[in-house]
Amino acid sequence: MPLDNSIEFLPLKIAVLTVSDTRSLADDTSGQILVDRLTKAGHILADRAIVRDEKPDLTAQLTKWIQDQEVQVIISTGGTGLTGRDITPEVFHSLYDKEIEGFGEMFRLISYKIIGTSTLQSRATGGVAGGTYMFALPGSNGACKDGWDNILSEQLDIRFRPCNFAEMMPRLIE
């Protein structure tokens, strides 16, 4: 889909969250991919954090950002699989005002073309809480690239046509 260059680009303030028991900033490659892509696109990195796969920790970090007027979008990586420690989708769903069902569906469709039926193990999800967009991607580098390059880069760009998430932001908390 085309960009309407007659519309001025609107940089969004995006927080990046890595959900992992083992990662640090030094080896958080998936989080860094998201940071690199969003800043290259012209958006602003509002904050970045790493939290363990613990519901109270994840809930606290997400709630802090949802309440922060300087964070418009949260993108997380990790914790979307099927193991007992993978709790990201459950925490996201507990915070949503509205789920964006199509985000997870679209992510899996795109992923299927790349990794086949292995995409069934992804529980990528998206929604809105307190006027803040929230997107949970799997923890692999490829998943972060696919999610950003094929969905989020367009939907978070106000110039993308025929419509996009960015232009709806003022009306999310009507």
UniProtKB/TrEMBL annotation:
GO terms for cellular component: cytosol. It comes from the Bacteria. The keyword Phosphoprotein does not apply. Pathway: Cofactor biosynthesis; molybdopterin biosynthesis. Pfam families: MoCF_biosynth. Keywords: Molybdenum cofactor biosynthesis. Coiled coil: none annotated. Residues 15-159 form the MoaB/Mog domain. One of its GO terms (biological process) is Mo-molybdopterin cofactor biosynthetic process. Belongs to the MoaB/Mog family. PANTHER family: MOLYBDENUM COFACTOR BIOSYNTHESIS PROTEIN B (PTHR43232). May be involved in the biosynthesis of molybdopterin. This is Molybdenum cofactor biosynthesis protein B. It comes from Paremcibacter congregatus. The lineage of its organism: Bacteria, Pseudomonadati, Pseudomonadota, Alphaproteobacteria, Emcibacterales.
